[in-house]
Amino acid sequence: MYKLKPVVPVPMLIENTCRMYKLKDLQQMSFSGVPMSDKSDELEDINDETQLSDQEIQVLLEKQNEVLKILEQLELRLSKLDVKFPNAKDIVPISEKQQSTQCNVNKEHKSNSKSVINNDIKNLIKNDTVVFADPEDPPYSLLALPILWPAVAWDISYHVHSSVLKDLEALGTIKAFKNVNCKHSNNIVKVFVIWQHIKPSPKVVRSPTDLSIGEVSLLRTFNQCLATQPLAVADQIKSNKVLDLINEIVDSTNDRTAELHNLIMESNTKLDITNIVIWSLLYKKSEHPSKIEKWLSHFTKIIIV
User: Fold this and answer.
1) pLDDT in tens, 140-170
2) Do residues 198 and 237 both lie within one domain?
3) How many structural domains are present in the chain?
4) Which candidate, 140, 130, 214, places its Cα nearest to that of 177?
5) What residues are paired with 156 via a beta bridge?
């Protein structure tokens, strides 16, 4: 708005000859396939927004195809939830002998096939997982962790906050949650569960900057690091869509139990994170259709011993 008189005269153009480093000439790289004699004229044409020649268009299309191929590869990797993209040589198989001596989990639920644990398990071992759970909305999926991943050495302990000690109803609810102790491995995944009246529940804390909420996020956190056999891309996308829908239903202020019922296939009794989350959410409710009750009973007999 106002033009002030300069206190110290400064030249309008300052020539800086001291550079820390020199960036690549992107325009020069883009038109490396164009003859040198025509480059300056062609760049001027581009700046003037004139029509590009066939040769220039071909060069740009080749660059575009290269970028698209890189984006497709990144999308494929992200769809597999393989954030750190480990090399195949870094994946370490766990022998059946180690699996049989790791945890005091019911043996009939253990997988007989050899499994490969993602190297991201080192992050779980290095940093403990703390789960703040509300006894009025208990995350029953915690009971399924040793069943979903029997090859892992689990150490799950439950602690009651002082605000819950006098709540007899809450204490009666959390009796179903028993500690899981592993003493036959140096690589133990430790989970500390703190019963506390907290909304929303559960709250999963991995570090001061790593916090997530809900049972979907809880199981996704472990599945990302402990997935034994990655699903096919199409199956993984389908599973993620179902988990996202479940998360949306849980966060809704309306009663959307019927939508959870619609996600259940009576013949699908596979122990995976999708079915476990649905089971945990419906187990806390009552008055389900007979087909749903039969489906819930199947998982209840396996998980709640």
Assistant:
1) 999 999 988 888 889 999 999 888 888 888 8
2) no
3) 2
4) 140
5) 180, 191
